[in-house]
Amino acid sequence: MDIRDTKKRLAEMIIEKSFKYRDHPPFTLASGKTSNYYFNCKPTTLDPEGMNLIGEIIFDMLADTDVTAAGGLTLGADPIANALAVISYQKGKPIRSFIVRKDVKGHGTKSAIEGNVKPGEKVVIIDDVITTGGSTITAIERVREAGLMIDRVIALIDREEGGRENILAHVDRVDAVLTRTEIMSLYRKV
């Protein structure tokens, strides 16, 4: 399967497992806003086929980089970063995964970052869905505090509601595997 076919299959899975649309009542998002559509990516990102597709696509997106690790705010980023780690290892160019904690532990190392990463490494911030960009920006701040260098942000889905622009105030590059426009276009054809 070439990368376009892989992306198309992933979009189909997202529509089938992770996308909801309704006119009334609208969904309440983490940001507090309401919307007629909702993405719960976990049924796709935790599915074996979904993980494989996501890992393949993001590995392809990073083919021209020298990043050593990828991760983001737990829980949305975790299966995506892990999928990338497995696929990258299988392809001979390992990219480790890491987790950014929402709340720093009050015991042990008291680390905000879990994983085998060291200051100075070039990393990618991962998120499942970008709406306002708040959780991604939190991950960016914690990763920088740990001394990691951010190459870019990659989101599975950009809802195209200003989050990308908010994140671009903190990093130079934000990519999305899929956008709301792409998902809605395919959804209307189904």
Key terms for this structure?
two-stranded antiparallel ribbon, 25% strand, six-stranded mixed β-sheet, 7 helices, Rossmann fold, 190 residues, 39% helix, alpha/beta, single chain
Write the layout of secondary structure elements.
Layout (H helix, E strand, L loop, with lengths): L2 H16 E3 L5 E2 L5 E2 L1 E3 L2 H4 L2 H14 L7 E5 L4 H13 L5 E5 L12 E2 L7 E9 L3 H12 L3 E10 L4 H6 L5 E6 H10 L1
Parallel strand pairs: 5-6, 5-8, 8-9, 9-10
Antiparallel strand pairs: 1-4, 2-3, 6-7
Helix pairs in contact: 1-3, 1-7, 3-4
How would you explain this protein's 3D organization?
With 190 residues, the chain is an alpha/beta fold. The chain has a single domain, classed as Rossmann fold, CATH 3.40.50.2020. It contains seven helices and ten strands. The chain has helices at residues 3-18, 42-45, 48-61, 78-90, 134-145, 163-168, 180-189, and strands at residues 19-21, 27-28, 34-35, 37-39, 69-73, 96-100, 113-114, 122-130, 149-158, 174-179. The chain has a six-stranded mixed β-sheet with strand order 7-6-5-8-9-10, with helices on both faces. A two-stranded antiparallel ribbon has the order 1-4. Helix 1 crosses helix 7 and helix 3 crosses helix 4. It is globular.
Summary of the model, kept short:
The protein is α/β, with parallel strands linked by helices.
CATH architecture: 3-Layer(aba) Sandwich
Cα-atom Rg, whole angstroms?
A: 16 Å
Mean pLDDT: 94
The fraction of residues assigned to DSSP E strands is 15-25%
Helix content: 25-40%
Separate helix tally: 7
* CATH fold field value: Rossmann fold
How are helices and strands ordered from N to C?
HEEEEHHEHEEEHEHEH
Question: Any idea of the CATH class?
Answer: Alpha Beta
* Arrangement of strands in the largest sheet: 7-6-5-8-9-10
- Termini gap: 22 Å
- Secondary structure class reads alpha/beta
Annotation, overall tally of beta strands = 10
When the domains are counted, the total is 1
